[in-house]
Write a structure and sequence with these properties.
By secondary structure, the chain is of the alpha+beta class. It has a single domain, classed as Double Stranded RNA Binding Domain (2-Layer Sandwich). 29% of the residues lie in helices and 22% in strands. The protein has two helices and three strands; from the N terminus they run αβββα. The chain has a three-stranded antiparallel β-sheet with strand order 1-2-3. A hairpin with a 5-residue loop joins strand 2 and strand 3. The longest helix is centred in the middle third of the chain and has 18 residues. 22% of the residues are buried. Keywords: RNA-binding.
Length: 100
Amino acid sequence: MDVKSFIHQWCTKKNVIPEFESRSTGPKHRQRFLCELRVEGFNYVGAGNSFNKKDAEKNASKDFIQYLLRQNIISPADVSGVRIKSFSSTHLCSNQTDKC
């Protein structure tokens, strides 16, 4: 499962809808996309950016999952099956032996 699917599945269980808002910035030849993820009932806004909209949404999802982990709203075991391609300064658990 990828991170965006996890967010949608988690929100469905909580009966809330994730809202992704993306916008482009910069010149056309070096355009970047900024994405904000909001979930009703949470003051936190997940943020992500990338050179394409899809990856910006994934990065915002990763950021929101990190928030949920920090707040102990979900446990590392909850995200053990989530596929993470890359994390620079943060890390999500990719299997049950990882320590978060």
